[in-house]
C-alpha cells in the first residue's frame, strides 16, 4: 500500500472518529434539527481532526501529521 493511500485512510479514520461522537452529542444536547445536525458535526470534525499528508523526500516518501492539539508537524512511521 502506498504512502498516499495510507495518508488518505488515516485522514478518513481520524475524521470519522471525531465525526460520529460529535454527531451524537450535537443531536442529543442541542436544539438543532434537520440538516443542521450533520453539518455542525462535520464542521467540528473538520476543524478538530488530524491532517495527514504524504510527501516525497530525498529519503523516499514519508507521512506527516499536523493536529490542532500538537505543536508543529510530526513524522509518522
What does this structure look like?
The protein is α+β, with helices and mostly antiparallel strands. The protein has helices at residues 3-29, 36-48; strands at residues 51-57, 60-67, 70-76. It has a 3-stranded antiparallel sheet, with helices on one face. Helix 1 crosses helix 2. The longest helix is centred in the N-terminal third of the chain and has 27 residues, at 3-29. The mean pLDDT is 95. The chain crosses the membrane at residues 7-26, 32-49. Keywords: Membrane, Transmembrane, Transmembrane helix.
Any key phrases for this structure?
single chain, 77 residues, alpha+beta, 3-stranded antiparallel beta sheet, 29% strand, elongated
Amino acid at each position: 500500500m502506498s504512502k498516499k493511500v495510507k495518508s488518505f485512510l488515516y485522514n478518513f479514520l481520524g475524521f470519522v472518529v471525531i465525526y460520529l461522537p460529535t454527531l451524537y452529542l450535537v443531536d442529543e444536547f442541542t436544539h438543532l434539527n434537520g440538516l443542521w445536525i450533520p453539518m455542525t458535526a462535520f464542521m467540528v470534525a473538520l476543524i478538530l481532526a488530524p491532517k495527514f499528508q504524504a510527501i516525497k523526500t530525498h529519503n523516499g516518501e514519508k507521512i506527516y501529521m499536523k493536529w490542532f492539539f500538537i505543536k508543529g508537524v510530526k513524522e509518522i512511521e
